[in-house]
Amino acid sequence: MLSEQVYAHLRDAIMRGAYAPGAPLKPQDLAKEQGVSLAVEREALVRVVGEGLADRLPNRGFAVPSFSDHRWQEIAEGRRTVEPAILRMSIERGDVDWEARVRAAHHRLVRTPAYASEEGEHYTGAWAEAHRAFHRTLLEACGNRALLETFDRLWTASELARRWSAHRDPGRDGAEEHRRLEEAALARDADTAAEVLVRHLTLTAAALTDDSGRAVQSRRSGSARGPEGDACDVRSGQVDGGEGRRRADG
User: What is this structure's pTM?
Assistant: First the structure.
């Protein structure tokens, strides 16, 4: 379906960093670029707005969100409040099968390459999915569908910020953070697991602000970096949370 293709193309371009934070997304230009009608392009833009990947600005059209948008800190606060509690429940209720799934999800994350030149400066879609699966598997033994749906919504809402964070903090060892998270969960050490998770999420949000707490502007360069939510280490080629050949966080 044409509208689905246009939406997928736009979403992928934003995720790959084709548009800088705060960059305008002009419906007329995008429609001309893809050879589609203005109505089809606007439909795609409305969909990415719904996912938190773009903003609709009064009398100014559409734009990629900016680093300075307070929503990223609000989402991070929500995740730090909700996810450690879900993780504690999961550790308490999880059985041997859950342990095996956590181990398998972490192994997949470690073995999935985080970056590929054809997918732009941010981590790959395959790594992003392995990263999401690892974090969700840690929580899924909680047995509470409403809480897991809350996690799903917050994860989707924070994906763009996660990519930016990893790109801005290439020295962060997200792979080690994920390893410690898996280790604590499988040891049934809920206190340590919750502490590691809170720090993991905090570092992701912190990468979007400078020392004074003010949002900093993009420092785009030719070097590859990791995604927010899992900061990537260019030297190791891995993304925290995942372990491809870079590190990413959150």
Answer: 0.79
